[in-house]
Amino acid sequence: MVIDSHVHISKYGKNAASLEEAFRLYLDEMKKNNIDAAIIIPDNVEGSDQIADLDKVIDLIGKRENLFLLGSPQIIQRRSGEAEKYKRLLEDKKIKGLKFFPGHDPYYPTDERCLPYYELCEKLDVPVLFHTGENSGDSECAKWNDPKYIIEVARRYPKLKVIITHYYWPKLEYCYEITKDVPNIYFEIAALADEEVIGKSGGIEKIREILKKTIADRPDKILFGTDWPMCKIEDHIELVKSLSLEKEIEEKIFSVNAEKIYKLI
Ligand SMILES: [Zn+2]
């Protein structure tokens, strides 16, 4: 069983003429790659015809029981003002956690506008997910999502499940070292099989080495994800398989951990 914990419904390149078509493309990709379930991350830009926001994704997925959602609070535009809205969505199980985009948006994970959301997620025992690392063609933005801030959040909220995605590429080693003694840090591997990420992060062997170390340290805290449509699903499956893990550990990465951490079932 494979659960992809990091998907966007977006027009990328010329993949689709509409978000409806992008969604259908994703359903085809799921079938082709034997993906059983997925967590779709709405963008925090609302009303775009390029990438689906929360309302649009809810609309697109309809009653499908194998597609799940995160919320994406608008820290810059609405500060902490959406805490009630997300409390309801989380309590009603319409979303499974919250994603933060420091680096897409100019705020640090320790920003006080974020704190009510962390408190909420800790109380409801659902994860928060942090976008980290460079954006394609923009290395400056990584200053906003440095894991040194993320471990501060994890220490301040010790029961909060704090997931890092993209491993603060290209500085994976630094991210590994600074997080390794913080027990409530989790990793989700989206984009680590992407060509640009591999090239800038020291090559595929380096990525494998870091993932193997991380999995050895915290086998229950690593989740599979892809960042489709920006990245290829098959390359991410291949990356995990290339680690030659014990069957039981591989199953944890591909599905068991996501089920437990996001409480999907
Ligand atoms: Zn993403």
Give an account of the 3D structure:
The protein has 265 residues and is of the alpha/beta class. The protein has a single domain, classed as TIM Barrel (Alpha-Beta Barrel). It has helices at residues 19-32, 54-61, 75-78, 83-91, 115-124, 147-156, 172-179, 195-200, 204-217, 233-241, 247-261; strands at 3-7, 37-40, 67-69, 98-100, 128-131, 162-165, 185-188, 222-223. The strands form two sheets. The chain has a five-stranded parallel sheet. α4 (83-91) packs parallel to α5 (115-124). Residues 6, 8, 41, 190, 227 line the site of zinc ion.
For the termini, the CA-CA separation is 14 Å
Following the backbone from N to C, one meets helices and strands in this order, namely: EHEHEHHEHEHEHEHHEHH
Structural class: alpha/beta
Average of the residue pLDDT scores: 96
- Discrete helix count: 11
Number of domains: 1
Strand order of the largest sheet: 4-5-6-7-8
Roughly what percent helix? 40-55%
User: Bound compounds, please?
Assistant: zinc ion
CATH architecture annotation:
Alpha-Beta Barrel
- Give the CATH class: Alpha Beta
Tell me about the largest β-sheet: 5 strands, parallel
Q: Might you state the CATH topology name?
A: TIM Barrel
Fourth CATH level, the homologous superfamily: Metal-dependent hydrolases
Give start-end ranges of low-pLDDT stretches. none
Task: Tell me the β content.
Answer: 5-15%
> Rg from C-alpha positions?
17 Å
Q: How many strand segments?
A: 8
